[in-house]
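Long-time lurker. I teach an intro course on protein structure, and each term I like to show students one example going from raw sequence to a predicted 3D structure in token notation. This year I'd like something fresh instead of my usual example. Would anyone be willing to generate the tokens for the chain below so I can use it in lecture? Attribution to the forum is fine with me.
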Amino acid sequence: MDRLGLSGVVSIGLTGGIGSGKSTVARLLVGCGAHLVDTDAIARSLTLPGGAAMPALAAAFGPQAIAADGSLDRGQMRARVFADPEAKRRLEAILHPLIGLAASHQAAAASARPVVFDVPLLAESNHWRTRVQRVLVVDCHVDTQVSRVAARPGWTAETARRVIEQQATRAERCAIADAVVFNDGIGLDALGAEVHALWAAWATPEQA
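-- Reply from a regular --
Happy to contribute to a lecture. Here you go:
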């Protein structure tokens, strides 16, 4: 899809580091009228019991990667890819094509609504950057990311920092951004006002 020369932006790539508040911004964009394609949610659905990715994941990583209910053992897999870059590449080689296909199907259901692709690793992916017309980055301090993630069930501050270290840096994400929302030390009302202003600027067709 061409990034330039259109009347009104119709595809937005939304990204941000873990704990940045990206999901909150996604919900605000949906409230503005966006059609959301959440690639994290797609990945989770692919790795649930009976999910489309499970046969290939079981073949690639063995029974130890499968939880008792038949889903992907996300904690075990997270530890594995931390320790083994090759395991990370194999995991991505299985999941990314399936995620891309499902994302295309979901985007096709948008009708005339602008589509927001919520992609945590957008900065690391040339594919996603060329697919969208604008990139919106949700940013905050690393210490804020750590404290938010460590408050989640099953997470520690150490694990949060390890995930952050494997993602693009704040500077790398901001370098690809058409706009940055700094979600640190502001309330939901102020965050919503920023998101609504961007929506009005990006998603409203130009008047003839």
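Some talking points for your students: DSSP finds ten helices and five strands in the chain. The chain has two domains: 1-34+113-208, 49-112.
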